[in-house]
Design goal:
64 residues; elongated; 1 helix; alpha+beta; three-stranded antiparallel sheet
């Protein structure tokens, strides 16, 4: 799969917060799609995003 992550923020703490949120978002989507993390990849294009007072991020996942 091809994964592109764009994060716009100002500090290292904000970057780490975004990475934590991204991890939670990916786990939630994988659970909803019944994906076992070590065996299966995403079967359809997936876009995750979040915007708050710390900045914004966009994650695009494209299966091969």
């Amino acid at each position: 799969m091809i994964t592109k992550i764009t994060i716009e923020c100002e500090t290292v703490d904000q970057l780490l917060l975004h990475l934590t949120v991204i991890k939670k978002q990916i786990i939630k989507v994988a659970k909803n799609d019944n994906l076992h993390r070590s065996l299966f990849g995403f079967q359809h294009p997936t876009k995750l995003q979040d915007s708050n007072c710390y900045g914004e991020h966009v994650v695009t996942i494209k299966p091969e």
